From TrEMBL, chain A:
Gene source species: Gadus morhua (Atlantic cod)
GO BP: DNA repair; DNA strand elongation involved in DNA replication
Similarity section: Belongs to the activator 1 small subunits family.
SUPFAM superfamilies referenced in this protein's UniProt entry, alphabetically: P-loop containing nucleoside triphosphate hydrolases (SSF52540), post-AAA+ oligomerization domain-like (SSF48019)
Subunit composition and interactions: Subunit of the RFC complex, an heteropentameric complex consisting of a large subunit RFC1 and four small subunits RFC2, RFC3, RFC4 and RFC5; the RFC complex interacts with PCNA. Forms an heterotetrameric complex with RFC2, RFC4 and RFC5; this complex has ATPase activity but is not stimulated by PCNA. The heterotetramer of subunits RFC2, RFC3, RFC4 and RFC5 interacts with RAD17. Interacts with CNTD1; this interaction facilitates crossover formation.
Residue ranges annotated for the AAA+ ATPase domain, each copy included: 34-186
Locations listed in the record: Nucleus
Organism phylogeny: Eukaryota, Metazoa, Chordata, Craniata, Vertebrata
Protein known as: Replication factor C subunit 3
Pfam families: DNA_pol3_delta2, RCF1-5-like_lid, RFC_C
Automatic annotation (TrEMBL), chain B:
Protein name: RAD17 checkpoint clamp loader component
GO CC terms, sorted: nucleus
Cross-referenced InterPro entries: Checkpoint_prot_Rad17_Rad24, P-loop_NTPase
Keyword Kinase: no
Biased amino acid composition, Basic residues: 39-48
Composition bias, Low complexity: 53-62
Pfam families listed in its UniProt record: Rad17
Keywords linked to the UniProt accession: ATP-binding, Cell cycle, DNA damage, Nucleotide-binding, Nucleus
Main location: nucleus
Name of encoding gene: rad17
Annotated organism of origin: Gadus morhua
GO MF annotations in UniProt: ATP binding; chromatin binding; DNA clamp loader activity
């Protein structure tokens, strides 16, 4: 069985559920023949990847659906072997270069070169270019991005790039200016609701509109998350009830408990407990940035208005540190400690204020 | 003549090696008279007290006297070797422990379990001397292995030596047996055959101890070959075998390489570890020797005053041998060259000056911190990690009443006023023989216990964060690491304004490395298993996996295990709180580079097989339990005495 997310993923531009004008534009873009490099960006769960796959299908037909996973080994100039997984069809190649870590530059250069240097065999029936889809471009090192810029120019004749990322802020200007930017915004709450109910209908389930609304709100309009939540709801209880609790992921619950622990007591011993919890989250593959973000969100909801600016400020400071530093725990802990100190001072001041 | 030759023999080792090509009986035969036995058995290895300790006690006095009359070249280390337990510089309990071991394991009626002992400890702490003295007192013959050298082997038979190098010779090539082979033969023979009872020998000395201090080089490359030999040895189990391994503090200990935990358990090797000699014991011994020598020379050599002795003690960092050597040297210099006392310190290192300052308030007040006096031949001071961490975490600063002399900070900074430190944080880190980053990790793991207020912790953690930030860029890491550790240590010291009540606090090994490793393993496993979903890692880990875990219709395949592992957080079992305690004898083992974990990773648990190899039948919780059990075991192993 496959997940609903995958099962009901729209397969062509015409079948997309929302942002239909954009779908039409993309269709026109493909049909008019000339096809620039694309930079598709937008928040997670908005449907970037779905849109890209639809676009590819429009370009090449059903052939792009025959995907194969390839395990490639690239030898860097320093003789170091880099192993990377790619997903490819006859017409396109998808790769996440940031998997290679620091060596992403080599991956970009080598992979694109290999793809671009081989011509299409039947260029009469097919397009004369192949497509390379790079995901998580915003996580590329600067080095790799510059390499990408040169590669883009060099192989324009035989290869088109589709770059996919969450935010363009980490993509260097030269790349942005060489690509056609396509922003895929999040669906609105109503759109999420309608998608949910369509999916449920196809599954033969009836989804109360209140629950759909609740799910879409809890998911933060992230459609992937909403569908996963909906499916989890189905597993949890069917028939659906209106006031059913929407299941949350364990790490979110755990993070909230952690935040509550921080708020309820501020002491070195408590910080020690919090550290153990942070470690636990890290072992469960939750990236430190996400932990930081989630923690701040939870903490802010516990904060008084005037404290919020300060907390956000230190959160931004330590998030930056997290990016620059080496070992995430130092910064997560420093943030927690700082928050504890601020919060404690605020509470004590508040108590003093009450006394007088 | 004999003595002077022997003092040279420290490096040459010719005596013993010459004899070695002969069957090992020759050793025993040579042992018929006390003097020659001492010579053959102990000559080349010049540990403290080996020379005379095996001589019968009745004649020991004359042995001590004799060299003095002949010349002054005898090192005091040899002249004043301990002859009885009372003279040993080792703690009584330790001696008792060794004695008990020897008693129980040589008596065939009580003997059970291992027949091998492993004595470890820093050099010059009296390991060998203890064995010598005890063997003497309990009536054991010591038979010691010494690495043979090939050259001398040929010297015994010059004809064969020439032949091997002759191109036309049939035997073109060395005929020697490998050291490993010789070692094995030695053990076999020493185990099997007793020495002959000679006329004139007092009492039966058929019981013997085999002592190995010198390991054939091959064993360091292939510890397995040693283990095989030992396994065979243990099967016959006739003679007790004592290994002595000197440890250094920097962590790459031979004892761990040669005798890993599994082997120690398998062969039930009894591990007795020695501490460096305590300063009080040391100064007693020095004083005794100095008085003896002064008496012998009839006043030409005066007893050094207490301060000088103290300096000698502290300079040797628990190494008796080096302390006695430097005592002899310093007294010689004084008498022979009649140098003024201040100038006697030839080598004054800046580091030493600072280390002086750390040695307690009493002396530093008398002499003043500026006076950089250090004895000749002082050793580089090094610290066990445990002590080094303790120095930072339970820091000491000068007493408040001395404050008046210091200049004060201006009023708006007065909250940052601290008493001056009695330690030098950079030096402490340097002496711990750890990379600055690992030291920071250790500090980070342990600092919270020593703080009492959150405000202090907040500032301290900020310094740790700064320190990590310094080393974030790999290109500049080598340079910045020291600054990082300086910031971290000094930051911690400065922030701890209200020290938590002092007492013993267990220290722990940092969790970060194992956590980081697990994090990466899990991420990789997740990615390789769920590559079909074509998702970016973050989304996979944060959104898909947790919900897959929620969708409880199990897919009944290995994938499922991983989902439950990564997606579900077992709130109730906080297995992370199983900390590995760090004890005072633990060397810092994490000298390897950053993201490549040190030995510890290997020591902890076998990395969980990630990916498709996960057996489908194995439910996840059991794996966790197994992990926990393993960690528990480890903690027991690290029990301090």
């Amino acid at each position: 069985m496959s997940l609903w997310v995958d099962k009901y993923r729209p397969a062509s531009l015409g079948k997309l559920d929302y942002h239909k004008e954009q779908a039409v534009q993309l269709k026109n873009l493909v049909q008019c023949g000339d096809f620039p490099h694309l930079l598709v960006y937008g928040p997670s769960g908005a449907g970037k990847k779905t849109r890209i796959m639809c676009l590819l299908k429009e370009l090449y037909g059903a052939g792009v659906d025959k995907l194969r996973i390839e395990h490639q080994t690239i030898v860097a100039p320093s003789k170091k072997k880099i192993e990377i997984n790619t997903i490819a069809s006859n017409y396109h190649l998808e790769v996440n270069p940031s998997d290679a870590g620091n060596q992403d530059r080599v991956v970009i250069q080598e992979l694109i070169k290999t793809v671009a240097q081989s011509q299409q065999i039947q260029s009469s029936t097919q397009r004369e270019f192949k497509v390379v889809l790079l995901t998580e471009v915003d996580r590329l090192t600067k080095d790799a991005q510059h390499a990408l810029r040169r590669t883009m120019e060099k192989y324009m004749g035989t290869c088109r790039l589709i770059l996919c990322c969450n935010s363009t802020s980490k993509v260097i200007g030269p790349i942005r200016s060489r690509c056609l930017g396509v922003r895929v915004p999040l669906p609105s709450t109503e759109e999420v609701c309608s998608v949910l109910s369509t999916v449920c209908k196809k599954e033969g389930l009836s989804l109360p509109s209140e629950l759909a609304r609740q799910i879409s709100e809890r998911s933060g309009r992230n459609l992937r998350k909403a569908l996963l939540m909906c499916e989890a709801c189905r597993v949890q209880q069917y028939p659906f009830s209106v006031d059913q609790a929407v299941p949350e992921t364990d790490w979110e619950v755990y993070l909230r408990e952690t935040a509550n622990a921080i708020v309820s007591q501020q002491s070195p011993a408590r910080l020690m407990e919090v550290r153990a919890r942070l470690y636990e989250l890290l072992t469960h593959c939750i990236p430190p940035e996400i932990i930081m973000k989630g923690l701040v969100a939870e903490l802010l909801s516990n904060c008084d208005g005037q404290l919020k600016t300060e907390v956000t400020h230190i959160a931004a400071y330590y998030e930056h540190r997290l990016q620059l530093g080496n070992k995430a725990i130092y910064h997560l802990e420093a943030f927690t400690a700082k928050f504890m100190a601020i919060y404690k001072k605020f509470m004590e001041d508040g108590l003093d204020g009450l006394m007088f | 003549m004999r003595m002077s030759k022997r003092s040279l023999g420290r490096k040459v080792r010719s005596n013993k090696a010459n004899c070695w090509v002969e069957p090992s009986f020759s050793n025993l035969l040579a042992g018929k008279s006390p003097e020659s036995k001492g010579k053959v058995g102990k000559g080349p290895r010049k540990k403290k007290g080996e020379t005379n300790s095996s001589a019968p006690r009745s004649s020991s006095l004359s042995v001590v006297q004799e060299p003095h009359q002949s010349d002054h070249n005898v090192p005091w280390v040899d002249a004043h070797a301990p002859h009885s337990q009372a003279e040993l510089a080792v703690h009584k309990k330790k001696i008792e422990e060794v004695e008990n071991w020897i008693r129980t394991h040589t008596d065939p009626t009580t003997s059970k379990g291992g027949i091998i002992a492993l004595l470890t400890g820093p050099s010059g702490c009296g390991k060998s001397a203890t064995v010598q003295v005890l063997a003497e007192e309990l009536g054991f013959r010591l038979q010691e292995w010494t690495n043979p050298s090939n050259v001398s082997e040929y010297r015994a038979d010059p004809e064969a030596y020439r032949q091997t190098f002759e191109p036309a010779s049939r035997f073109n090539g060395f005929l020697s047996t490998s050291q490993t082979g010789l070692f094995q033969e030695f053990l076999l023979r020493a185990n099997k055959y007793n020495c002959l009872q000679m006329v004139g020998e007092q009492g039966p000395k058929d019981r013997k101890l085999i002592l190995v201090e010198d390991f054939p080089n091959n064993f360091f490359r292939q510890p397995g070959s040693l283990h095989d030999i030992l396994r065979r040895f243990v099967k016959t189990r006739r003679c007790p075998l004592v290994f002595i391994v000197s440890e250094n503090l920097s962590g790459d200990s031979h004892s761990r390489l040669l005798f890993p935990k599994e082997i120690q358990e398998e062969l039930s090797i009894c591990n007795i570890s020695f501490n460096p000699v305590a300063p009080t014991t040391m100064s007693k011994i020095l004083l005794r020797i100095a008085t003896l020598e002064a008496a012998k020379t009839g006043g030409r050599l005066c007893v050094p005053d207490k301060d000088t002795l103290d300096i000698l003690c502290s300079g040797s960092s628990g190494d008796v041998r080096s302390a006695i050597n430097s005592l002899q040297f310093s007294s010689l210099a004084e008498r022979g060259l009649s140098l003024p006392k201040k100038e006697k310190c030839l080598a004054v290192l800046p580091g030493k000056a600072a280390c002086k300052r750390t040695q307690g308030k009493k002396r530093s007040k008398e002499k003043g911190p500026g006076e950089a006096e250090q004895c000749i031949g002082g050793k580089d001071v090094s610290l066990f990690l445990f002590r080094a961490l303790g120095k930072i975490l339970h820091f000491k600063s000068e007493s408040p009443r001395k404050l008046s002399g210091q200049h004060k900070l201006p009023p708006h900074l007065s909250e940052h006023q601290r008493h001056s430190l009695l330690i030098h944080p950079e030096l402490v880190v340097e002496r711990s023989h750890m990379s600055a980053e690992f030291f920071n990790l250790y500090l980070h793991q342990n600092y919270l216990d020593f703080f009492s207020t959150v405000e202090d912790v907040a500032r301290a953690s900020e310094y740790l964060s700064d320190a990590d930030f310094f080393t974030g860029e790999w290109a500049s890491r080598a340079v910045m690491a020291e600054y990082g550790s300086s910031v971290a240590t000094r930051g911690l010291l400065h922030c701890n304004s209200a020290q938590a009540p002092v007492g013993f606090r267990p220290l722990h090994k940092p969790n970060w490395l194992i956590i980081n490793k697990k994090h990466r393993e899990n991420c990789q496993a997740a990615q390789s298993l769920f590559i079909n979903f074509c998702l970016t890692p973050t989304i996979l880990q944060v959104e898909l996996l947790p919900y897959l875990a929620k969708l409880s219709n199990p897919m009944r395949n290995p994938v499922d295990n991983l989902t439950t592992m990564t997606g579900k957080i077992q709130v109730e079992t906080d297995h992370l709180l199983n900390l590995e305690a760090l004890t005072d004898k633990d060397p810092g083992t994490l000298d390897l580079d950053d993201e490549v974990e040190g030995d510890q990773a290997g020591a902890l648990s076998p990395p969980r097989e990630a990916g498709a190899e996960l057996p489908a039948s194995q439910p996840q919780p059991t794996t966790f339990e197994a992990l926990m059990k393993e960690e528990d075991l480890l903690i027991e192993e690290y029990d301090s005495e």
